[in-house]
Amino acid sequence: MRIILVLFFSIFFIQCKKENNGKNKTEVDVIREVPDTKKSVQPVVGQPEKKETLKKYSSENVPEKYLEIVADTLGIILDIRYATENNFTKQQIYDCPRCFFRKEVAKKIIAIHEDLKERYGFGIKLFDCYRPASSQEKLWKIMPNPNYVTPPYKGSVHSRGMAADLTIVNKEGKELDMGTSFDFFGKEAHTDYQNHSDQV
Asked: What is the C-alpha R_g of the chain?
């Protein structure tokens, strides 16, 4: 009996160890675009039918337990400006236009987007999400002004996956008037500015 118990716990321990060791420390869950079930896809004769599964990505720049919002997921639009030259620096800061948040933040953003869609037919467009510390340093070197860019030694909330730069879009995907454009560094973008139109 003792030998059987020892053998059972040994197998259980080895199995648990395998499962834990198999996890990548930088593995992140991904929200993927729901496949279009209206399209009829015929499997190739002699090959098993491929099923859509939840994929996982690994990235050296993304901490574990972050969740990625993929382009057009649930109708959310991505326009990751720092992955292009279309930003105040006129330089590409990010290597790729991916959008990560801590899971609790991502779920809240999705909930807000769904509420906007249900109430008004509107949606969300995201300009910036998780920002690696190295990218924060690049931004600070270009714009060393704490009024607009958080000093690297403080650490940006973006670098913690807890901040989002976004706007609201209408049914056609057109941005609503927020008074200024994204990355505007004038008084009109300050939270205490009172001279915007009633529409804004």
From this structure: 22
